[in-house]
Design brief:
It holds the Pfam family PAP_assoc. Helices cover 42% and strands 13% of the residues. By secondary structure, it is α+β, with helices and mostly antiparallel strands. 35% of the residues are buried.
Length: 518
């Protein structure tokens, strides 16, 4: 496996050799490729649907793009004035579309979104085990090679604008786009990186004198970040092809620019030099690469949480996907033997090149995956899914917090309902937003899910063509067969349900069903 940095570098370089073309509804793939090949060898290409058909073309050499740009025309300005910016976004127009219709062939469109939960459940029912169901879900939801290329291209296109002001800057993706846990359709988090420019700061010339750049001095780094993002935001808004709905959110804890990139179809968030967030992405990349069960379990738990309203795309008191991912990794650290190492164990394997202190935070951990011993744990995903729900359904959240550095529960430092230590910024709780009702809902659903997995008759469910295993967990509880619901209610050992019975004095099973449904 390549290191996180090697993958990033390779994909960023790949993106610089890539263009995006908007195509007519009826197009000859062969003729388009023949025309483009006259400017240089094409490494790869694919078509996708997004407000019309688009083609992503990756050339072998960067100068092929310059050759193509030299012969491409600026649109006519008679109807609308245009900003003459030579980007890598093009429109392909057929001069004689009627005459060329015979040359058309059916082109394959690469999917850029995952299937619906309803279709997923149907697909899962055809699997032969819960493990294969979880791998099916992973394959349907994870980012495809094509989608990842598109994400890096979006960053590269923003970088073309940023370099007009800051020639040494790079725009890199972080978060779900690169940490191996991204789902098709997720936003693109990107940051403007000045590390290449900063490398010049420490260079000292030999001899009796030295030279340095004259730079604008500002009172604080935060103000510098706000000014940089303000300028780039305006530039994208006024001159960026396909950049719409640009919002400058400069007074947030981490200032950012939000925008929609229409050519690729992504919602994007741009920040500046978000170093700790990048290290978090790399840490998750390592965990995702260590064992195939990690990603399969994370994707299944996150899909389950979304179906039951535990997570949301709208900010609020819900558990975030990041928090859920950390809970899964913590659970895997706690298995016997552990499936993944603790952050402190990864830090102990770090060499000098892996040492990173950002501010006052030690963000050091090994980057070379070959230095990490594989686990001896042989548990199946069937067992892990059940045990995840069983573990957190009975976790003492009132007293304990979740610490991935140590891989064990520690006493809560403060009274937040859910306390998950940030792996690097140890004074921060990444789940501080979660309130008590949401945590209780999570616990109740975890217990309910463990009960279903433990009690269900898989063979009988398959014969009667009812959802089973993971598929049964992806149907909101209370919307199933009412008779099944009665049986479930009898077996729930949940303190939450018991307290509902005591406090509300529910007199019949129907009322209890409503309570569970809520």
């Amino acid at each position: 496996k390549k290191t996180f940095t090697e993958v990033q570098t390779e994909r960023l370089e790949q993106a610089e050799r890539t263009i995006l073309i908007k195509c007519p509804p009826k197009i000859s793939e062969k003729k388009l490729l023949q025309y483009l090949s006259s400017h240089g060898k094409i490494n790869s290409h694919f078509f996708f649907e997004n407000r019309g058909i688009h083609a992503l073309i990756e050339f072998s050499e960067k100068n092929s793009i310059a050759s193509l740009q030299d012969v491409i025309g600026i649109p006519s300005t008679t109807e609308y004035p245009v900003v003459p910016f030579k980007s890598r976004l093009f429109t392909f127009v057929m001069k004689n579309p009627v005459g060329q219709a015979a040359a058309e062939t059916q082109i394959h469109l690469s999917p850029q979104s995952h299937i619906t939960v309803k279709d997923l459940i149907q697909k899962l029912c055809g699997a032969d085990s819960i493990s294969s169901q979880m791998y099916t879900l992973l394959n349907e939801y994870q980012l495809t090679e094509e989608n990842i290329k598109l994400r890096f291209l979006a960053c590269s296109l923003v970088r073309d604008f940023a370099r007009a002001y800051f020639p040494d800057s790079v725009v890199k993706p972080f978060g779900s786009s690169v940490n191996t846990f991204g789902k098709l359709g997720c936003d693109v988090d990107m940051f403007l990186d000045f590390n290449e420019a900063r490398k010049h700061i420490k260079k000292m010339a030999k001899g009796p004198f030295e030279m340095e750049y004259q730079l604008k001095r500002l009172p604080s780094e935060r103000l510098a970040t706000q000014k940089i993002l303000s300028v780039i935001g305006d530039c994208l808004d006024h001159f960026g092809p396909g950049c719409v709905s640009v919002q400058k959110i400069l007074n947030a804890r981490c200032p950012l620019v939000k925008f929609s990139h229409q050519p690729t179809g992504f919602q994007c968030d741009l920040t500046v030099s978000n170093s700790i967030a990048v290290k978090s992405s790399e840490l998750l990349y390592i965990y995702g690469c260590l064992d195939s069960r990690v990603r399969a379990l994370v994707f299944s738990i996150r899909c389950w949480a979304r179906v039951h309203g535990l997570t949301s795309s709208v900010p609020g008191a819900w558990i975030t996907n990041f928090s859920l991912t950390m809970m899964v990794i913590f659970f895997l650290q706690k298995r016997s033997p552990p499936i993944v190492p603790t952050v402190d164990q990864l830090r102990a394997l770090a060499d000098e090149e892996d040492r990173h202190v950002i501010g006052s935070y030690d963000c050091s951990f090994v980057s070379d995956l070959s230095k990490i011993n594989p686990t001896k744990n042989t548990e199946t995903l069937d067992e892990l899914l059940y045990n995840f729900f069983e573990y957190f359904g009975n976790f003492d959240f009132r007293k304990n917090s979740i610490n991935l550095r140590k891989g064990k529960e520690v006493n809560k430092p403060e009274s937040s309902p859910l306390y998950i230590w940030n792996p690097f910024e140890q004074d921060l709780n990444i789940s501080k937003n979660v309130n008590q009702p949401q945590l209780e809902k999570f616990v109740a659903l975890a217990r309910e899910s463990a009960w279903i997995l433990q009690k269900e008759d898989k063979t009988q469910r398959m014969i009667s063509k009812e959802p089973w295993g993971l598929a049964a967990l992806l149907i909101p509880f209370g919307k199933n067969n009412p008779n099944m619901m009665k049986n479930r209610v009898k077996g729930i050992g949940s303190e939450t349900i018991k307290s509902l019975l005591d406090s509300l004095k529910l007199s019949n099973v129907n009322n209890l069903q409503k309570a569970v449904g809520k």
